[in-house]
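re the bet — no i am not wrong, look at it urself. input seq straight from the record:
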Amino acid sequence: MNIIIQGKGMDVSEYLSGIVQKKVGKLKRYFKPETIAHVTLSIEKSRHIAEVTIPFDGIVLRAEETSTDMYASIDGVLKKLEHQIVKHRTKLEKRLHHDAFKEEEMLFHDAFVEEESAKLVKTKKFNVKPMSLDEASLQMELVGHNFFVYRDAEYDEINVIYKRKDGNIGLIETN
């Protein structure tokens, strides 16, 4: 497993880089050797943020953890990733390293409780009218959701806008 570490708004020391390499490297038992893990560490005010993204075989695993301590954020993000892997174990087994679950003990969690899969409980249908990004943003605010699906008036494509944790808006474009 190759691990790419970058700092966003901060310099990553050799010591911190070594810790990340060691801890994230433990996930190699789940992945094929050519898998690349992207680790981004950042500090915003007093928030220490660790983000790990692992694209492999057409799937992207991603987790983010924020705390007041970078080491706690790193440990937390690895717990989240391992939880995702184990939770979706049966769906991912064909794509993971063939010995991924040879040892049943977890690396970052003490125990894992199987959760029920989410079920579709409601379906909504609505007309998607062409509108600008600004109009879609206003509509999202008016309906009180943190996402909104709309048809872009200029390109006639279905897009999704969403409210980010930092309070800004993100855009997902289709093609």
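see?? The chain has four helices and eight strands. told u. also The longest helix spans residues 70-87. so pay up
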